[in-house]
Amino acid sequence: MIRYSVLFTLILFSMTCFAQKKKVIYKYKEYEKFDLGDLEIKGSIIAPGDISVKERRRKVFERELLKRDNFDKKIIEEIKFLR
């Protein structure tokens, strides 16, 4: 009798072990939208003290290409002042 009960429990547990796994459905986070126009920032607006930027001389690059005789002088000036 004990054999039958052990055999029955083994068969019962083996069926649950070999059962198919449930299909898992993953749900990802949907698109999130921020309304930046609706944001409110607390604080006071102050004018900056002294912001000064010193102008510095521009670096002039010398290239052999510009020293050719048949190179247009207008093109040379435009190349030198490219930004």
Overview of this protein structure:
This protein has a domain at 59-83. It is mainly α. The model has no long low-confidence stretch (mean pLDDT 75). The protein has 2 helices and no strands.
SSE diagram, text form:
Elements: H1 2-17, H2 73-80
Summarize the structure.
With 83 residues, the chain is an all-alpha fold. It has helices spanning 2-17, 73-80. It contains 2 helices and no strands.
Beta strand %: under 5%
Compressed to H and E, one letter per element, the order equals: HH
Global Rg: 40 Å
Approximate helicity band: 25-40%
Largest sheet: none
Shape annotation: elongated
Count the strands?
A: 0
| H/I helix tally | 2
Give average pLDDT, whole number: 75
* Low confidence ranges: none
Helix- and strand-based class?
mainly alpha
User: Termini, distance in Å?
Assistant: 97 Å
Tell me the quaternary state: single chain
Q: Top keywords for this entry?
A:
2 helices, 0% strand, mainly alpha, 83 residues
